[in-house]
Amino acid sequence: xxxxxxxxxxxxxDGEGSSLQNVLYCISHxxxxxxxxxxTKRNHHLRFSKHVYRFLYFPQKTHVxxxxxxxxxxxxxxxxxxxxxxxxxxxxxxxEHKSLLQSDKLIPLTSLDNYIIAAxxxxxxxxxxxxxxxxxxxxxxxxxxxxxxxxLTLDFPILAKPLNSGNGRGIVKFENRDALANHFESIGLKxxxxxxxxxxxxxYGCNVLCYEGEILAYTIQKGTLWDSKPFTAQxxxxxxxxxxxxxxxxxxxxxxxxxxxxxxxxxxxxEAEVFYVLEINPxxxxxxxxxxxxxxxxxxxxxxxxxDKNIEPQEYKQFSYVNLxxxxxxxxxxxxxxxxxxxxxxxxxxxxKIDDPIPIVYKFLRGLKQGxxxxxI
Length: 377
Fold this sequence. Notes:
four-stranded parallel sheet, 14 helices, 14 strands
């Protein structure tokens, strides 16, 4: 397929991932990109985004090899320049089965061993203890701990976190051993959990783009507003600079010889003056648009790194960001927010919604029809 000079074709092979919307906002700033999206969701509302050059539906495959075969076909047919997976499952599959790709167009990614460490809260806790980075004391939950409560040596309160879940889903807080044991005796131990000492402090996040362990770009944010559900992601944040946190991230990413993007959740204990690393999300993150508005376009930089093998040093501004859920929370408390148009335009993602309205309209109509007729369009 012939394309104009200096126009690059980018393939997202896992377009069913929930971060696609935020990636599209970042892509909207690029004028020399043709974005191809593969997805197992035939009626994905984002197929109608003006930023998607070609939406390609492929049914869910039973075997990874068949999915990668589809990727190879798309790469060859459309002259793809960069293969950019955006979600956990797709990234891991391509790391694990990279040899099946018939091209060298894949974005830089870390090794499978280091990816597994980063993605697994229990393994990450052991790794950080080994290299001297602070994190809450963590142990795997076992039947032995449930049945013999005295075997648990963590200080309460503690959190039980499922290993195969994210964005706070499934996390339960326990104040004592009896509450923990009674809970899991009741529901059973049907999936893997870790137990982690509950720490009080200030929520921070650090987003990075790395190559072979070196941080090439980053942003740091401090949480200011949260959803009503416990342990969920921030809906409001301040972008800040913090040198001790950054130095910790440099050490952590270097220890993992990390390549690609990652989002690290942290907690700062002001009394002990210690940052605790809670977890690593080895993918694009929910507040990606916030990083974009702070001045760092991570998808663009990742594409540029893949094509040019280097990027220029990045700076980001310190500003306050609120997503639309957070904006709604603030509005309920302060109706005068409606007249603060400058804040809404410059500090929220509303302008990106307005710029690409067709997916919103389609999603609304689909939901309306589903509510009336019990099926989607």
